[in-house]
């Protein structure tokens, strides 16, 4: 009876809200950070787009999985990610609330998952979305989609895999990496933990009875020991120094992943003075699964978690229960007046992982994220695989006196460290790519780094693209590229590539990177690591000048110089900004040299431009990039 009611609910949702075409230019599997950004960009370029999303939300790890505290170490906002965050700021600014609530500081970025979903849905309004649906088979030009109304077949020109697991890749016959092996010869190795997060809220007048739990779930004894090691009533304050002294107290725990609260008066930040005023946060610390439980004595989870739906269901159920244990611990051991936030999620359909939970826990489950936070996916095998050493070298561009090591085909900039939650033993890392556990420290990025276009394109298929955690990269690099800001940026690039490919009638791999970069530059995307004091992101020539940097078209007046660093760290400086000379007039001789350089990227086509008439360097950059892209 319960399954019948669930299906009726889904049918009602589908029939009332959506109608669909039999064919789309671009079909995107997964409406997560990458998939939604791809849909926004592709539809803005005028192609028809369908998102196929298994849940009732857009945003993936940033919303649907509850990780709405942005992991943005580089603080390089651009493109769709910048637009999204500006809308977040405007939303909370209208309520006079700060979004700088997380990570024990007053300059982080966070939002409520429900708010993130609504903003993304508005940004993606030009695309169609099939909620509660999943692609179950892939042919060369069509997919079969399981919807609440049954199986439907839809045609496509480009298919983008933006699922959390890379589930389209085996269906489409794409060769992929998983763990430290390549399909179909998959080894029994370990990958990163998952986490089923929660969004919890303080109830000053007492926890509502239906959100209070009195009976622990099976396995609570093990969880009790685990959580006592992380957070305790008499635990330690975070003092601004790492490593964090454990266990922390409740205020410190809640301030780590604090998010704004639309339903409580006032505002707070992540600064210590505000910790006791925080009323809403995410639970994403100490509840990795298996975490310290280990998996048969090993850190991480087995590769078969991705490959086997049965094992996936088993592990996700255990991950969910581990987090539910925390809710019981918080209410009954810590004696805190916190529970899940009734204003988040309100799932009419419980996830499969919640099957057979006792009735008193089902009210809690209705306000839990509908999916877990999945850190690692299948990854396409491309003609080029981005590895940690290449990322390390790339990040050294304009750093400590270095010159350019930039990727000519860069389409996004990331800024996170190599961060693996389990699966980081030598036996689990890809030695075939020259990597080992020691590479995590030796080859870590020295700040921001670029992502090249070629990692979005699989070697074995012509009309499939990657756009989430499934790029052509090593496991170590995936530890730096799995975070919300960069998956949104690479997703935007995938959407641009797909649309340009369709409009030009050529395969994605035949699209020149500069055509994608032109679209992204016009959209304000940061692509070059070379920064100038006289060219900000709002400069009208920003995109063209970045492309000029990447291809060496126009010489800068002054390139970023050596930074000596601080007194305490002599020689440990970083990038400084150069000066492009954006308003300087280009001589006729220099302009002729610029044209000569540009013709190296036109496949022998001569560039014919109007007679030189006192162009500035900014104008010349725009003119020459447009000429290359004709």
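^ Assign residues to that structure.
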């Amino acid at each position: 009876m319960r399954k019948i009611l669930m299906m009726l609910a889904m049918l009602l949702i589908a029939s009332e809200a959506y109608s669909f075409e039999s064919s789309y230019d671009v079909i995107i599997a997964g409406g997560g950070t990458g998939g939604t950004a791809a849909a926004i960009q592709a539809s803005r370029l005028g192609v028809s787009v369908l998102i196929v999303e298994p849940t009732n939300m857009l945003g993936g790890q940033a919303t649907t999985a509850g990780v709405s505290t942005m992991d943005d170490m580089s603080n390089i906002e651009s493109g769709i990610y910048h637009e999204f965050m500006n809308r977040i700021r405007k939303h909370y600014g209208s309520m006079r609330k700060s979004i700088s609530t997380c990570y024990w500081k007053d300059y982080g970025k966070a939002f409520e998952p429900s708010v993130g979903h609504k903003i993304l849905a508005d940004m993606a309004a030009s695309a169609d979305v099939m909620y509660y649906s999943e692609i179950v088979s892939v042919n060369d030009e069509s997919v079969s989609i399981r919807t609440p109304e049954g199986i439907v077949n839809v045609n496509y020109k480009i298919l983008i895999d933006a699922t959390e697991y890379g589930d389209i890749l085996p269906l489409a016959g794409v060769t992929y990496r998983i763990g430290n092996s390549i399909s179909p010869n998959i080894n029994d190795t370990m990958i990163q933990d998952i986490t089923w997060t929660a969004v919890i809220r303080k109830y000053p007048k007492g926890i509502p009875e239906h959100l209070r739990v009195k009976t622990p779930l099976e396995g609570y004894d093990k969880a009790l020991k685990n959580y006592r090691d992380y957070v305790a009533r008499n635990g330690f304050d975070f003092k601004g120094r790492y490593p964090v002294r454990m266990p922390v107290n409740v205020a410190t725990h809640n301030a780590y992943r604090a998010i704004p609260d639309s339903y409580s008066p006032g505002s707070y930040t992540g600064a210590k003075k505000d910790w006791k005023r925080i009323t809403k946060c995410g639970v994403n610390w100490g509840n990795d699964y298996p975490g310290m439980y280990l998996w048969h004595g090993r850190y991480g989870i087995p590769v078969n978690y991705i490959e086997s739906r049965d094992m996936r269901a088993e592990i996700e159920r255990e991950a969910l229960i581990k987090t539910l244990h925390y809710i019981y611990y918080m209410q009954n051991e810590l004696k805190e007046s916190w529970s899940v936030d009734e204003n988040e999620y309100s799932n009419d359909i419980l996830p499969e992982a919640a099957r057979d939970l006792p009735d008193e826990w089902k009210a809690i489950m209705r306000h839990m994220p509908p999916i877990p936070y999945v850190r690692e996916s299948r990854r396409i095998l491309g003609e080029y695989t981005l590895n940690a050493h290449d990322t390390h070298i790339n990040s050294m561009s304009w750093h400590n006196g270095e010159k350019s090591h930039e990727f000519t085909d860069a389409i996004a900039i990331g800024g996170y460290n190599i961060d693996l939650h389990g699966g980081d033993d030598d036996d689990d890392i890809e030695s075939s790519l020259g990597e080992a556990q020691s590479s995590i420290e030796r080859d870590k990025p020295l700040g921001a780094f670029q992502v090249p276009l070629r990692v979005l394109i699989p070697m074995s298929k012509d009309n499939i693209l990657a756009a989430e955690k499934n790029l052509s990269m090593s496991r170590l690099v995936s530890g730096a590229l799995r975070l919300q800001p960069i998956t949104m940026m690479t997703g935007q690039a995938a959407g641009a590539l797909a649309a340009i490919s369709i409009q030009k009638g050529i395969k994605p791999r035949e699209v020149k990177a500069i055509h994608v970069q032109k679209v992204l530059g016009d959209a304000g995307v940061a692509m070059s690591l070379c920064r100038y004091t006289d060219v900000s992101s709002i400069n009208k020539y920003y995109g063209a000048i970045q492309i000029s940097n990447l291809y060496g078209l126009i010489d800068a007046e002054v390139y970023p110089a050596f930074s000596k660093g601080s007194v305490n760290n002599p020689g440990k400086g970083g990038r400084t900004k150069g000066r492009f000379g954006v308003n300087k007039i280009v001589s006729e001789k220099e302009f002729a040299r610029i044209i000569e350089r540009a013709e190296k990227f036109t496949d022998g086509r001569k560039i014919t431009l109007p007679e030189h008439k006192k162009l500035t360097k900014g104008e010349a950059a725009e003119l020459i990039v447009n000429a290359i892209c004709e």
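The chain has a mean pLDDT of 93.
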